[in-house]
Amino acid sequence: MESEDSNVSNQIEVGDVVDSNQESPQNVEKTSEPTEPTEINELNNKICEPMDTGDTEVEPEDNPEEHEDEELGEKKLKNSGGFTGRGVTLQMLLEDNILQPKEGAMSLEYMGQKFEGDLLNDGRIRSAEVQEVFGSPSAWALRCKKIVNPEQKYGCGWSSVRYCGRPLDVYKNQWMRKRRLEQISESSPTPDCNAPINDNNEAEMDARQVTKSPAVFKIGFCDRPTFKHETLGNRSTLDDGNLLVETLIFNNFGKLQPFTVSLHTSAAIVIDIHCSLTSSEVVGYLAGIWDMNTNGLTIKRAFPCLSRLADASRGHTMELTIFQAMEAAGLSLVGWYHSHPSAPPTPTVQDIDTQLEYQLKLKGGGDQGYRPCIAMISSPYQRGSDVSEYTELNETSGGSPGCPLTCYWVSPPPESRPQELARPMAMKYTVVPDSYIDQAVYHDIESCLQFYKDAIDRINVSEIWKESVTILDKLKAALITNLKNDQSSTSIRSFLCNKNGNM
């Protein structure tokens, strides 16, 4: 990390725009700082709704053939055994009770104008403004947008159309997640009840050997490409919110980080364990302290959001519990984390949009009210590529975490190019060893273990990760790397060993 004694002119100010084509950065418009409960409620609307890291639907200009393809989508998806997000229709969501027919349930806002519609029993949308019926969200979105802007060519229905106030993407991801879990359940081998009982000792020995032999971890390689920011163009042209975007380095722009970041081991181990327990994407909050005198952000705790997307009641209960825990610990909300189970720990287009929104909400008004907001991504099971470029962000002397963990902050687009996608900037951080692990941290770990204990998407830590190393061994090594205190290291290792039956 650059020295604090470096020339101030080389340091990017908090809230400035990183732009290689203009000399003076532009400031972000400041917003008033909300109260803590409001922050939790607002941010949780998206944080507790993990984005599906598979492909999403890229919706082209509306045409009749597209609607015929959508009607065949369910059959293709069910027969193919794969769920990528393409071919999902409103009718499929209705049949699985993800959505319900309802008058006035559909809405769309575009350039200051709001459109409303009814969701019909057959999955079509009846528009209130134009008194027409549309076969897909894309068709309706395109029609509405062309009323305002005749040059509009793309509908982007699933990301822009809302059902009861929530984006359709949320419901589509919920349906896809449900389908994946059903597929996993259906593909699991079932015992053969008609198999004869064999009393042969040799056969029993072979069976025991098979049972004891650890399985090889089956999460696949992720071959999704990472795109450079300068190749993406305007945000409005990016229909796929799951595109991975390469983070940028401050030094490459002749700038320093706007603030330093310190991550306490109590937070790091909770992130590692939470993200490593499931093959699904997880999310959580980061709590800590902002010191404007030293320009440093300290992350002291991580709070997992232990709720499923469809369980709204538990989600609200979790956010209240998290807020109370932060308040009791004397900490503030300073960011969020999520996982890319097997994809690189670099943000997607949607991650960038979300992070920019969070930064503006926490920014506050004036120097006294300002508080930065950062994001972290963990990739516990990434394979097939060099992770050194990500682990280098951890500036702690003597080690890097076993699970790649990146920290990023978003630089808003310049005023001269407001439609440009915000720039994801890699934030270097240091890991601060805690002298001891607080009991509350053990409680958070225990809660994670219990939550995923019987889940279909739970990771079996007894499986082989690489060569003869199990996933549990991998997880222990990653945690111990961050625990410099021998007593803390021994305590957490003993805790994991004792809880191995729940993992």
TrEMBL record:
Pfam families cross-referenced by the UniProt entry: JAB, RAMA
Record-linked InterPro entries: JAMM/MPN+_dom, JAMM_MPN+_peptidase_M67A, MPN, RAMA
Segments of skewed composition (Acidic residues): 52-72
One Gene Ontology MF term: metallopeptidase activity
Region Disordered, annotated ranges: 1-81
Signal sequence, start to end: none
Domain MPN, residue spans: 261-396
Composition bias, Polar residues: 1-12, 19-29
Protein name: EOG090X020Z
Gene behind the chain: EOG090X020Z
